[in-house]
């Protein structure tokens, strides 16, 4: 049994590096679609409006988790984005990772000088999706890279 496990590990060690460099078309397409969605969302937040294509993907019944909500509350995340925009906070998209059911946007946050309640310097919305639509949104505040 150990011999077979070692043979399997050796084979995986040969095969996995070769497949890691292959482009996965589905993941690439999902990531690019999500990047466009993120840009449209951030642009809409800057302008104070909700783009129609985003409203289709972010339904009113979205359940935000974390600092955006109260337990059990269901709302659209744009009101929180609007409050931050009104304080002068801006978000800048850095990276996007997407699959059929999970999307992560990695963003830098810029606070205006002297703001009373500054946002953390990095933000990563984690979205759980069903049929492309956001079902659950969790705001993660990772430590910035040095």
Jot down its keywords.
26% strand, alpha+beta, 146 residues, Nuclear Transport Factor 2, Chain: A
Account of the 3D structure:
The protein is an alpha+beta fold and 146 residues long. The protein has one domain: Nuclear Transport Factor 2, Chain: A (Roll), CATH 3.10.450.50. The chain is built from four helices and five strands; from the N terminus they run αααβαββββ. Strand 2 and strand 3 form a beta hairpin.
Quick overview of this protein structure:
Helices cover 39% and strands 26% of the residues. It is built from four helices and five strands; from the N terminus they run H-H-H-E-H-E-E-E-E.
List the helices and strands and how they pair.
Blueprint: H1 2-20, H2 25-47, H3 52-57, E1 63-65, H4 78-86, E2 90-98, E3 102-110, E4 122-130, E5 133-140
Parallel strand pairs: 1-5
Antiparallel strand pairs: 2-3, 3-4, 4-5
